Amino acid sequence: PLVTKAMAQDSQQNGVVAAETAMAAGIVGCRYEVTTLMRKLAICIIYIGVSTALIRFNKHMMQNHVFPFSLALSAIHMLVSTALCGVLFIVRPSMFPAMCIVREQKLDLAKWFVPIGCCFAVMLYGSNQAYMYCSVALLQFMKEANVMIVFLISCAVGLQIMNRLRFALIVWVIVGATVSVSGDIHFSLVGIAFQAISQVAECIRIVLGEFVLTGRKLDPLTYTAFVAPTCFVVLLVGNAMAWNSVIIPAAMAHW
């Protein structure tokens, strides 16, 4: 009986210890989930803030009396992005974990980076050019259709499947975007055309980027480090074909 009692006490103590351990592990796991959630929320807020500032800045730059050269402005964006990625890689190469993969598969990845860079260049040019004709609010309403366009392209390439509910949502988005566009005071078909071309190019870039980021296991910074210079080269060619002698004086005046 004494042995049985001792075994029962040990078993009870072990159960208490196990329960306390599980509770502690649960608390640690909960704290980790909260920390991860807060970090992701902070990244989203920063992204929204930077994106909003960039949109307003581009709208200001594209005014006729400031710097109304969308090709040049887009090329400057990509030049700065390329330079910053290079500096960041020199300072913190650990932030580019997939760089070794790219070095081993340069030719294979080039067939992805070239079309992505071309689509990115078209997107930047079209969106910046549209600021000359339409309001920021109208263009942002139009960008809401990007989710629909990405979904349709994903269905075309086999990444998504269409059903009746999704089709109804797509129709709803189209109707809402149409009402927003047609009800704008400063309606411009030219601006709408530039924005539409920009959005189609952006959505194609997103789908191609998904193939690269998920299928090739690339991290965002490594992806940007190669897409930005590719896009810059495409925009450089565009600037050479449509060069305006006023660009350099305007750039010096508003650097």
The number of helices is 10
Q: In angstroms, what is the radius of gyration?
A: 26 Å
| Beta-strand residue percentage | under 5%
Main beta sheet, described? none
Uncertain runs? none
Helix and strand content put the structural class at mainly alpha
How many angstroms does the end-to-end distance come to? 90 Å
Task: Walk me through this protein's architecture.
The chain is an all-alpha fold. The protein has ten helices and no strands. Helix 6 (146-156) crosses helix 8. It is globular and about 70 Å long.
Secondary-structure topology with pairs:
Elements: H1 2-61, H2 70-91, H3 99-104, H4 106-130, H5 136-143, H6 146-156, H7 164-182, H8 189-215, H9 220-241, H10 247-253
Features:
single chain, 255 residues, mainly alpha, 10 helices, 0% strand, globular
Give a short synopsis of this structure:
This protein has 255 residues and is an all-alpha fold. The protein is 81% helix and 0% strand.
